[in-house]
Design brief:
Number of helices: 8
Number of domains: 1
Bound molecules: fe (ii) ion
Largest sheet: none
Helix content: 55-70%
CATH class: Mainly Alpha
Strand content: under 5%
Radius of gyration: 16 Å
Order of helices and strands: HHHHHHHH
Shape: globular
């Protein structure tokens, strides 16, 4: 274990207050983009299952369960949106995941380790943001987000465990690299407000 007992211990910065203020003023976009994130989390887990199928039985089992949970979250967000009369509409993706992936190693097994480390950061940030938002939200949404934070915290631990099993000695160095890139994306200026955006001025 690399000493990351909680998702916050992996992250190099907290969500800026300014992002929380923007989120509270844009709860429709928050929920629509959140729904997209859950769907993408399932798709990402499944694409890893296909790409690294034959070699990693533990990866198959862990990510299959994770993908099912993410689709369950997607359905929960959609139900809440329906209840609140929030119409689903297309939204561009945040730059976040694509920008993290720009730093991927090109060769295996380092590439797999990087993909799993990125997965851990995305889950850890989701967890941190759900917890940061919850005290400011209405009771229904707050309860929902506190529950999701617990699930994403497990997912963060799952991805880190798989990264350790994928077996290179440079895991700590890669975590260090992605922690810096991730924190810059979260604390820097961004064009559009999204669940994983930086600060929109
Ligand atoms: Fe989720
Ligand atoms: Fe998750």
């Amino acid at each position: 274990m690399h000493g990351f007992s909680d998702s916050n211990s992996l992250l190099a910065c907290h969500t800026p207050e300014k992002w929380i203020e923007t989120a509270l003023r844009n709860q429709d976009i928050l929920l629509i983009d959140h729904a997209n994130c859950e769907k993408k989390a399932a798709a990402t887990a499944m694409s890893l299952m296909f790409r690294y199928g034959e070699r990693h039985l533990e990866l198959q089992e862990t990510l299959s369960r994770l993908a099912r949970e993410e689709l369950g979250h997607f359905e929960q967000v959609m139900r809440l949106m329906k209840k609140r009369d929030i119409r689903y509409r297309p939204l561009s993706a945040a730059r976040y995941a694509d920008d993290l992936r720009k730093h991927l190693h090109k060769h295996e097994p380092e590439r797999l380790v990087d993909l799993l480390v990125i997965g851990a950061f995305i889950e850890a940030r989701s967890c941190e943001r759900f917890r940061a938002l919850a005290p400011h939200l209405d009771a229904e949404l707050a309860d929902f987000y506190v529950g999701l934070a617990a699930a994403e915290s497990r997912h963060f631990a799952d991805y880190l465990r798989l990264a350790r099993c994928a077996g290179t000695c440079e895991l700590a160095a890669r975590i260090h690299v992605f922690a810096k890139v991730e924190a810059d994306l979260i604390s820097g200026a961004d064009n559009d407000f999204r669940f994983h955006s930086g600060v929109v001025f």
